[in-house]
Amino acid sequence: MAATTIQPAVKNFIGGQFDRNGQKEMNVISPLDGSIISTLPLSSFEDVDKAVQAAKKAFPDWSGQTLKERVQVFYKYRSLLEKHIDELTELVHLENGKTHSESRAEVLKSIELCEFAVSMPQIVTNEVQEVSRGVECRIERKPLGVVASITPFNFPNMVPHWTVPNALVLGNCMVLKPSELVPLSAMRMAELLKEAGLPDGVFNVVNGGKEVVESLCDHPDIKAVSFVGSTRVAKIVYRRSTSNLQRCVALGGAKNHLLVLPDANPEMTASDVVASMSGCAGQRCMAAAVMVGVDAVQHIIDRMVVEAKKIVTGDNLGSVISKEAKERIEGYITEAEQQGAKILVDGRNASIPGKEGGFYVGPTIIDHVKPDMKIAKEEVFGPVISIIRAKDLDEAISIENSSNYGNAAAVFTQSGGLAKRVMEKASAGMIGVNIGVPVPREPFSFGGWNESKFGVGDITGRSSIEFWTQNKKTTTKWNPEDKTNWMS
Ligand code: NAD
User: Fold this and answer.
1) What CATH number does the domain located at 12-252+452-473 have?
2) Taking the model in full, what pTM does it have?
3) Which residue has the CA at smallest separation from atom 14 of ligand 1?
4) Counting atoms of ligand 1 from 1, which one is nearest the CA of 407?
5) Contacts with 97 (C-beta within 8 Å, 6 or more apart), sequence order
């Protein structure tokens, strides 16, 4: 599929039908070459309400099925993801701009997320105990009702799979609002879920921007909202949704610090740090943003420069999402340079022959960044790493701790004792030891700390079971002849 291929117009998916009825629209642009690949409806509160009504209608039957029945759809859906992996990979590549291998890895991760969802009957078992002679208490997990998921541009296929399979398998009906920059994968997801046999109305997609998000937070029939995106918007969504008495978990942005100690394995560290900062063009919430080099790490930095120079932008480094993103990232680099930081590898002004309209930034390594510079504090979200030098581990930890964010942190060392100090002291939700992208895989849950996440619990894995359900506690007595128990 060539980058310029025109994709079908994006439609909402409501009650099992694709729907587009005269809403205002915006263009969907492929960042690979800047071409218009589709158009997207900018939906309103009325569109959201239509989807919520469809979900409400579907809820009694869907939640009335057993967990073992509900997972059957996701066994079929998982096979469809495998069957269509080439096409789904191409779609992620086209709308997001990441490389083919990164796009494929994203779909494979969606498959793993489905595998966790279909394992729910094995792990979501109810509790029962005889709490008094002849009296039993039981706890059952019940779905919440209609729920919503709002997703960002950086993983068009995977991030919707963080929430959709788990929430649905647990008996909820959902309205998904994908990023308006990458709506094509979500539309295909709706088609495949329908093909897998998901009843109409259980899963709905409403496209658009801010107005759709606000409508989801305001809607009186939506019980819970999950959000993944920037911290600025996570705060807006968390405040608005909880003030409407919805349950909310809102994952925000990141500024992940990698602490590199002089005893770290030089080859592995250099290649892992560069892979972490440049993979998916640095547009991962788990990407390395700051390397804190402790003491004598020049030999590792030299190797990082060699590694970064091996990267071929446009080949094994994809595009960033938009013209605005490219300008923002390059602006951060230029400002750091003006403030005295040293650019070791410069990815500004990248241009790919034949794709001059695309949005590319090459790998960028900036040394001697100071902790108070803007580039050290704010999320850049591009293939850029800032190196801050620290005299010892305590100083490095205090630099990490001073960040407002707290998604991930990592340490590279061969010393177990020093690694343990970082594991204990880093102020982040996900910690890597000699791992540059420490994503917890299922059944472990994903979620950061501080301004990288608002709300209780994490978004995936076991933690998500709490989020998507409520407990029903039932106490029963079946021994009228037995007068000894004290519960009337
Ligand atoms: P974004 O916050 O701009 O958009 C996310 C969603 O919010 C989109 O669906 C968008 O339409 C909507 N939105 C945008 N502005 C809004 C507003 N003013 N009011 C209401 N809704 C609004 O994020 P993005 O640029 O699509 O994604 C990149 C960001 O997501 C980065 O900050 C990245 O770190 C973060 N992210 C975090 C995680 C995590 O797990 N913590 C995972 C992936 C991405």
Assistant:
1) 3.40.605.10
2) 0.97
3) 210
4) 41
5) 30, 31, 32, 281, 318, 319, 320, 321, 358, 359
Ligand 1 center to 363 CA (angstroms): 23
Q: How far is the CA of 459 from the centre of ligand 1 (A)?
A: 15
Handedness of CA 181, 193, 443, 100 (dihedral sign): negative
Please give the class, per CATH, of domain 256-433: alpha beta
Smallest CA-to-CA distance from 51 within 181, 190, 154 is with: 190
**Ligand 1 pocket at CB < 6 A:** 150-154, 159, 177, 179-180, 209-210, 213, 228-230, 233, 236, 251-254, 285, 379, 381, 407, 448, 452
Q: Which string of b and e fits 208-241 if b means at least 16 CB within 10 Å?
A: beeebbbbbbebeebbbbbbbbbbebbebbbebb
Cα 142 from Cα 171, distance rounded (Å): 7
CA pair distance 185, 231, nearest whole angstrom: 24
Strand partners, 366: 343, 386
CA dihedral 114, 1, 204, 244 (to 10 degrees): 90
Q: pLDDT, tens digit, for every residue of 45-65?
A: 999 999 999 999 999 999 999
Q: Which residue has the tokens 């400002």?
A: 335
**Who contacts 132 (Cβ-Cβ below 8 Å, separation ≥6)?**
485, 486, 487
> Domain extents for the chain?
12-252+452-473, 256-433
Q: Cα–Cα–Cα angle for 314, 208, 45, nearest 5°? A: 170
Q: Residue 285 catalytic?
A: yes
Which residue among 181, 233, 239 is best mutated to probe the pocket of ligand 1, counting the most ligand atoms within 8 A of its Cβ?
233
Instruction: Please state, in angstroms and as integers, the Cα–Cα distance from residue 457 to each residue in 24, 51, 226, 251, 464, following that order.
Output: 37, 27, 11, 11, 7
- Judged on CB neighbours under 10 Å (0-12, 13-18, 19+), 372 is exposed
Distance 154 CA to ligand 1 centre (A): 9
Query: 3-class DSSP state for residue 206?
Result: coil
Nearest-atom number in ligand 1 for the CA of 150 is 9
Cα(32)–Cα(354) distance, integer angstroms: 10
Q: What are 184-236's pLDDT values in tens digits?
A: 999 999 999 999 999 999 999 999 999 999 999 999 999 999 999 999 999 99
Nearest Cα neighbor of 317 from 267, 274, 279 is 279
Please give the number of the atom of ligand 1 that sits closest to the Cα of 178.
Answer: 9
Distance 230 CA to ligand 1 centre (A): 4
